Amino acid sequence: MIDNDLAYALIDLALSSVTAIMSAILMCLSASYFLATMPAALVSLWILQKFYLRTSRQIRLLDLEAKSPLYAHFLESLDGLVTIRAFGWTKHFEEKNLELLDTSQKPYYLMYCIQRWLSLVLDLIVTGMAIVLMVLVVQLRDKISPGHVGLALLNVMSFSETLASIIKNWTQLETSLGAIARIKDFAATTANENTSSEIQPVPENWPVYGTIEFKNVSASYTTDSNLVVRNLTMSIKAGEKIGICGRSGSGKSSLITTLFRMLELTPSSSLTIDGVDITTLPRQQVRSHLNAIPQEPFFLKGTVRSNADPYGMHTDTAIILAITRVRLWAIVEGKGGLDAELDLDFFSHGQRQLFCLARAILRKSKVVVLDEVTSSVDHETDALMQRVIREEFGDCTIIAVAHRLDTLLDFDKIALLSKGELIEFDSPRALLARESAFKELYYS
After folding, report:
1. Closest CA to 243 of 383, 378, 388, 442
2. Which of 41, 235, 295, 320 is 20 to 30 A away from residue 69, measured at CA?
């Protein structure tokens, strides 16, 4: 609302106000005695906007609150469309959608009624002004020229629409200014995710090597919730390739989010990268110095260039080279090159994952985290991604959460988790050579 509506509301209000002032001046010039009606008209308008703005403000808030469940239900239904159809819940969700739609229309209908009432009252006020003007014209017909009378009547006819525009634009401006107040309130009342101790500056060019040490790491989603990572101790040397595996709910993703400081660590936990305790650094800085390729691709609204290099740190040649490494440049070039708009239909799902890999190539970090990046791509794309990862990040520390365990067999070590705890941590060959939980999981 601040970016789109506020500026237009201010311009529209200014334009309507100037138009109303000029119309009033022209009417008063046509019949000088008509000026005496202006104070009464202004008082009437002031009283009218007091009632209208109070009511419309509350109705607009009710309208936003009533539409929110409808939008949420629609998005949730869209995400779970396959499940809804599979279980035959279509009828139930249609009825729920219609119920929420009816509820959302109640404030909108009331707002429409209020606006009709506003138009009626303004028309009545302007009608009264027109009657006064005509009385003055009849009484002073010898002193007023016919041209002035016609000009005054013309302005009176459009005056009600101008006044309605002023009040409606003022309401829109007030609503937009309310958005600023809500943002200010959010900034003032929402706690910062960084604690008071997380203020140390980030070392230059950190991390240099990529050595990671987990010592008695326990983490939870909030400070008072159950632990999802428990007493985890693990040492990762610079340049090692570590595979994270385990059954569903074992804590694989929780371990990754802990590294990115998206979970709350207990006071006894120690997590260092190149000897720097990341619990003393601002969390946003920690995330910006690590390289991640997520399971679900994420794109910004914009061009291919802005998505590949959001901070504008690389030349077009470097961006093209990175896209070429993942075999996507022919597709990008055919659709307009780096200046082409990147919409949902630009790439297939596998190609979107490859584009995220190209973006990671440009970021250049000694720590690379892969969160099941090949779980939903075909074997050909999987093989291409694995080859590019090994070639481009050969000297980096790689932590990979894998869906296909055979992709971890050439890693240096495997970390197997269960219920947030580290069960096994050894090379794939050693784990498969003995009776281990990894071997059981691999052959199951």
Report:
1. 442
2. 295
Q: How far is CA 289 from CA 17, 87, 213, 260, 368, in A?
A: 52, 44, 17, 10, 10
Given this model, what pLDDT does residue 199 score? 85
What's the pLDDT band for 143 if we cut at 50, 70, 90? Answer: low
CATH 1.10.110.30 assigned to 5-189? no
pTM over 0.90: no
37: Cβ contacts below 8 Å, ≥ 6 apart: 129, 132
Given a contact cutoff of 8 angstroms between Cβ atoms, the answer to whether 166 and 16 are in contact is: yes
Distance CA 174, CA 9 (A): 9
Rounded distance, CA 396 to CA 412, Å? Answer: 13
d(CA 269, CA 249): 22
Distance between CA atoms of residues 365 and 362, nearest Å: 9
Residue type, 184: K
What per-residue confidence (pLDDT) applies to 175?
A: 73
- 362 near 319, Cβ under 8 Å? yes
At 145, give phi and psi (nearest 5°). Answer: -75, 150
Relative to beta strand 270-273, strand 212-220 is antiparallel
CA–CA dist 403, 412 (Å, integer): 17
Q: If you search the block for the tokens 């470097």, which residue do you land on? A: 318
Distances (CA, A) of 153 to 161, 382, 428: 14, 77, 91
State the first-to-last Cα distance of the chain, in angstroms, to the nearest integer: 54
Q: Exposed, middle or buried, 202 (CB in 10 Å: 0-12/13-18/19+)? A: middle
CATH 3.30.360.10 matches 212-443: no
> Percent of the chain beyond pLDDT 90?
33
Task: Report the distance separating Cα 83 and Cα 222, nearest Å.
Answer: 30
Q: Which of 429, 354, 426 is nearest to 384 (CA)?
A: 354
Q: Identify the pLDDT of residue 30.
A: 66
Please check whether residue 432 is in contact with residue 402, taking contact to mean a CB–CB distance below 8 angstroms. Answer: no
What CA–CA distance (Å, rounded) separates 57 from 59?
5
**Residue at token pair 């202004």:** 42
Say if residue 27 is exposed, middle or buried (CB neighbours under 10 Å; 0-12, 13-18, 19+): buried
Residue spans in the chain of domains classed CATH 1.20.1560.10: 5-189
